[in-house]
Specification:
alpha/beta, Arc Repressor Mutant, subunit A, D-Maltodextrin-Binding Protein, domain 2, seven-stranded mixed beta sheet
C-alpha cells in the first residue's frame, strides 16, 4: 500500500513544477513535501523526481502520480454519489490537435468537474498513450479497443488538400501530377503526420516522398497555406470559410480525406469520466461526419 499523502505530494510537485508550489497547493511546508517524497522514494527504492527547474518525474514517479490522479477521480465520483462536496479532479487526455482546433474544446468546457492535462498527439498514435497507461482517455483513429478500455465511434473528420491561389498557379498549373507533388513544398504537422502522403497516394496511386515544412500548430498550419508556403491537409471545418472566400483553393474537391475518430477511455475510470464521455460523444456526433459516408 502507498501512503496517500506521499502520493499527493509527488503528484503536486510534478503538476506544479516545484516543492514550494506543491507545498502551497497542499497547505503544508516545503519541508513536509520533501519528507513525504523522500519517504516514498525509500519505499519504492528509486528516485521519483528529478530536482530541476521545473521538477520532472522519473518514469516510475510519473506512473505513481498517474495512479494518484486515478484515485482522485474515483474518490470524486464516490463523493458525488454520497452527496459530498467535490473539487475538480485532474484527468490526463491524449487528443489530436485538429480535434482541439475544431470541436473538442467546447465538449471539455461542458465538464467543469475536471482539470484537464491534455497531451497533443497524432490520432494514429494517441492509442499508444493509453497502452502505456499514461492517460485516462484518448481520441484515436484506431477503433481498438485498447486493452482495458472501452471504445466509442465518434465520426469522420474530413480533410481538404488546400493551398493559396498563388501557390496553385506556381506549382500546379499543369494539374496534380506526380512530378508537381514531388517538387511542391507541402506542410507537415510533425514527424508522425502522414495525412499529406496518404492523400497524395489517394490521388496519384503512387507512394511519394514529399518535400515539406514542419508546422506544429493547427492555426499556423492554415496560415502557412494562406501565405503560400506549401499545400497541406486541413480540417474542412477550419478552412471552409477560407475556401469560400477564395483565400485557399481546394486542390481536389472530389477527393477529400476522411479520418475516422474514436473515443477510448479506461474501463476502470469509466464511471467518473462518464459525463466527459457524454460531452465528447454528443459534440462529435453533432459536428463530425457520420461513418456511413466513408
Amino acid at each position: 500500500m502507498y501512503d496517500v499523502n506521499q502520493l499527493a505530494a509527488l503528484a503536486s510537485v510534478i503538476r506544479f513544477g516545484s516543492f514550494d508550489a506543491a507545498a502551497q497547493a497542499l497547505n503544508v511546508t516545503p519541508s513536509a513535501i520533501s519528507q513525504r517524497i523522500r519517504a516514498l522514494e525509500e519505499h519504492v527504492g528509486t528516485p521519483l523526481v528529478r530536482r530541476s527547474a521545473p521538477c520532472v518525474a522519473t518514469p516510475i514517479g510519473a506512473r505513481l502520480a498517474r495512479h494518484f490522479d486515478d484515485l482522485r477521480l474515483l474518490q470524486t465520483a464516490l463523493d458525488a454519489d454520497l452527496g459530498q462536496p467535490t473539487q475538480p479532479a485532474p484527468v490526463r487526455l491524449a487528443l489530436n490537435a485538429d480535434s482541439l482546433a475544431t470541436w473538442a474544446l467546447p465538449a471539455l468546457a461542458q465538464v467543469p468537474a475536471h482539470l484537464f492535462d491534455i497531451t497533443i498527439d497524432d490520432q494514429d498514435h494517441s492509442a499508444d498513450w493509453l497502452k502505456r497507461g499514461e492517460v485516462a482517455a484518448a481520441i484515436t483513429s484506431d477503433p481498438g479497443p485498447v486493452l482495458g478500455c472501452d471504445s466509442t465511434p465518434l465520426g469522420l473528420l474530413r480533410y481538404r488538400a488546400t493551398a493559396s491561389p498563388g501557390f496553385v498557379q506556381q506549382h500546379f498549373a499543369q494539374g496534380l501530377t506526380v512530378t508537381a507533388l514531388r517538387s511542391a513544398p507541402s506542410l507537415c504537422f510533425n514527424a508522425k503526420d502522414s495525412l499529406q502522403s496518404r492523400w497524395a497516394r489517394l490521388v496519384t496511386g503512387d507512394a511519394l516522398v514529399l518535400p515539406h515544412h514542419t508546422v506544429g500548430s493547427s492555426t499556423a498550419f492554415v496560415q502557412a497555406a494562406q501565405l503560400g508556403m506549401g499545400w497541406g491537409m486541413n480540417p474542412e471545418q477550419l478552412i471552409a470559410p477560407l475556401i469560400a472566400s477564395g483565400d485557399l483553393v481546394d486542390l481536389a474537391p472530389d477527393a477529400p480525406l476522411d479520418v475516422p475518430l474514436y473515443w477510448q477511455v479506461s474501463r476502470l475510470l469509466g464511471k467518473p469520466l462518464a459525463p466527459l464521455t457524454v460531452a465528447i460523444v454528443t459534440m462529435a456526433r453533432a459536428t463530425l461526419l457520420p461513418f456511413h459516408l466513408s
